[in-house]
Write a structure and sequence with these properties.
Length: 110
């Protein structure tokens, strides 16, 4: 949870409005309501794949960029597979905050 709060704090410091969910329950409804510029999703148990697929199948949500945050570097093939699934970027959880901000801005302003 610490890294989650660190990411949230960095996003807020960089001027982003943050809506944080602690579970995937109700995520689609929250995205439909909030219409975010970006979804930053923790990768940990497989639920994120189902949620990503649901987002990409919904015409009103499919264009919202999704970034995965992963605790382990699974190598370049992991990032390639994620990008083929529609993920804009895959960030390691141990990323430094300067690079985190740069990569978030690159996706949002793309």
């Amino acid at each position: 949870p610490y890294i989650r709060w660190l990411f949230i704090a960095k996003l807020r410091l960089d001027g982003f409005e943050v809506v944080a969910l602690s579970t995937f329950d109700g995520a689609i409804e929250a995205v439909q309501k909030e219409k975010p510029d970006l979804i930053l999703m923790d990768v940990f148990d497989g639920h994120e794949i189902a949620l990503l697929q649901e987002l990409k199948q919904n015409p009103g949500l499919a264009t919202i960029p999704v970034i995965f945050s992963a605790s382990h570097d699974h190598g370049p093939e992991h990032g390639l597979i994620a990008k083929q699934m529609g993920v804009a970027d895959v960030l390691p959880k141990d990323i430094n905050m300067k690079e985190f901000g740069e990569r978030i801005r690159a996706v949002v302003h793309n």
